[in-house]
Amino acid sequence: QVQLVESGGCLVQAGGSLRLSCVASGSIFSINAMGWYRQAPGKQREVVATITSGGSTNSADSVNGRSTIPRDNAKNTVYLQMNSLRPEDTAVYYCNADITTLQYRRAYIGYWGQGTQVTVSS
């Protein structure tokens, strides 16, 4: 019923930049918070940055000052712009969104995308 599709993952050199995109589609009634998470090999998934429907953002200390998380509510899309990339940013990046559907509007349910690989070479 609801799909989140990420794109933009790639191989990039340290110091470079990239922009990830995540589009939510399907029987969506409303979207509350959206966010980006990442999981490196052998590590737990961690939050990178989040944004509310009103535009309030939070980001992890590890990316603070190097990332922004713009959002286009009309397109049900959230982006992650990352600059000054480091090898430790290498991970699979996942999009998450809290969504109510046309069929179930009572509560937000968290949906995940399939992930997109970001590899930063030194």
Question: Topology of this protein?
Answer:
Blueprint: E1 2-7, E2 11-13, E3 18-26, E4 28-39, E5 46-51, E6 57-59, E7 67-68, E8 71-72, E9 77-82, E10 91-101, E11 109-112, E12 116-121
Parallel strand pairs: 2-12
Antiparallel strand pairs: 1-3, 3-9, 4-5, 4-10, 5-6, 7-9, 8-9, 10-11, 10-12
Describe this protein's structure.
There is one protein chain. With 122 residues, this protein is mostly beta strands. It contains no helices and 12 strands. The strands form 2 sheets. Strands 2, 4, 5, 6, 10, 11 and 12 form a 7-stranded mixed β-sheet that branches. Strands 1, 3, 7, 8 and 9 form a 5-stranded antiparallel β-sheet that branches. The chain is elongated. The N and C termini lie far apart (40 Å).
Rg: 14 Å
Sheet with the most strands, sense and barrel status:
7 strands, mixed
* Mean pLDDT reading: 97
Tally of individual helices: 0
Strand content: over 45%
Q: What is the string of SSEs from the N terminus onward?
A: EEEEEEEEEEEE
Summarize the structure.
0% of the residues lie in helices and 57% in strands. The protein is mostly beta strands and 122 residues long.
Keywords:
122 residues; mainly beta; seven-stranded mixed beta sheet; five-stranded antiparallel beta sheet; 0% helix; elongated
